[in-house]
Each structure stands twice: as structure tokens, then as C-alpha cells.
Design brief:
two-stranded antiparallel ribbon; alpha+beta; 310 residues
Length: 310
Amino acid sequence: MKTKIGLLLIVFVVAIANLNAQDVTTVEATDSNISENLDLEAVASVFGESEDLEDFEKRLNDPDTQISNLDLNEDGEVDYLRVIESSKDETHLVTIQAVIAKDKYQDVAVIDVEKDSEGETQVQVVGDVYMYGPDYIITPVYVHPPAVVVWFWGPYYNPWRSPYYYGYYPPYYRPWRPYPTPRYRTNVHVHVNVNNSYNRTTVRKSRTSVELQNKSRKNDFGSKNPDKSYSKRNESSKNKQDLNNKKGTEKVNNTKTENSKESTGKKVQDDWKTASEKKGTKSNVKDNKTSVPSNKSNAKPANKSVNKPA
């Protein structure tokens, strides 16, 4: 009798162990090619839907849309992307930086916004050479002039420099775990506005943007990990566009049409306001100076619980 009871207990324990094993979620490693984990076409699309740079940064880090899949510091959480702006005359350089550690940042891409001699605004999204290789450039042609572009030249413009840093994030931000790259690519394409065109080129139009970028570029991750640069990861291709062509992964809506006009200019409306001003609040950036809230009770700590992908 005791022998039978013992056997039943063993069977019961084994069954419970099998059930627990089935509950374990296995997460595949993300693609070692880090340029696959931030789709710049999606970035260009999100930029075109933003009302100002504060709104743009929020959209880049929205935990519901999950535009980014970058985890450069490999802490198991997608890195927060901050937005930094610099300008000279009729040129604005919008820099997207991954926050990877205390006082450590990595440029991942920049957006050149420049008004030409005819008063029209040209926009180009340029991948950082460490991340995407040299001359990986997207020129978006928006079906409607983006509000963010109008904002640059409007009466409500104020320079934007993100007040957030490692360990201190906005209240809306909830980090998430990186997905396997194929799943990320499938998910992120849902957030690309297919009514726009995303034209590829190797020619960067703004010399002023290059000048501004050379003065402000952050390459903390790249300096520490030279072996992970694009040129080291993909010795047989010049940049991510070249790699896409070889893989045959280029999307149909990237093709430039003959009648497309590469302009996002629009006459400024006198009554146009930013999203924060519509809500009766003001941006915390004035005259290139950032005012960080003194009450950090709403800030997100560095170590946070993360949401597992389904």
C-alpha cells in the first residue's frame, strides 16, 4: 500500500513540474544586427505625425506603439530615446539618442529640417554611421505638411532639449522587453503611414546639419564597442540600404514616384498652437534652457518592472 502511495506521489510531482515548465515564457534573442531594431521609416512616419519635438519624443517612447526595439546596454529593457535639438539660421538638427547609462548616450539617427531659398522645408532622416553605415538616408515626402515642420517656423516655436536622463523618465514611460527582430519588424510596420513616400538617397542635402552634428554627436556606446559598428557587423555591404537590397527586403512603398515633391513647406497659421498649449500647459524648455521639474516623485526609477511580450 505504501509503495502504491509513493508511486502516486512521484507521478503527481512529475505532472506538476511539467505544468510549471509549460508556463515558462521563452524569449528569443534579438538580432545581433542592431540597425534592424529601430526602423527609420517608422521614425520618419512618427515625426510627420508629431505636433512638436516634445510630442515626437513621447511618440518614440510610447509603450503602446513600441516604435523602438533597441537595447544597446543589454539590460533586458528597450532603451529610452531622448530628443535633442540644435539650430543655425534656417536649419534645425533633431538628434535621437539612446540613453544607455548615467551620462552616457548613443546617437542613433538625426533629422535634418531646413528651409530652402524658396521658403520650402526639406526633411531628411539620417541613420548614424555607427548604427546604419555611411549615407543611410531617407527623404520622406509627406502627403500632408507635418505640424511639427510648421511649428519650427511658427510663432510658438521654442527650442527643445529633452530633460530626461538615465534613471529619470516621464510618467507615461513604461519600459518593455525587446522582441525577436522578425516580430518587431512585423509590429512596427503597422505604425508606418503608407500614404507617405520614404525615398532612399545617399546624398545629404544640408551642409549646415553636418556641421551641427559634428559638434554634438554622442558615440559612448560605439567608442566602447567598436566591434559592433555597422562596418564590422556587415563587411560585405556599405550600409543598411545596401544590405536590404541584397536581402531583397525593400518595401514597395519606399519607391520614389516621378511626380512626388520633396517638400514639406506650409504657410504658418497665425492661430496654430502646440499640443501642450492646446491643453493649457507650456513646454518646460525656454531659450535653449531646460527646466527639469524639482518634484521627482513622478519620475520613473532606473530599475523598473518590465512587460513581457505576449
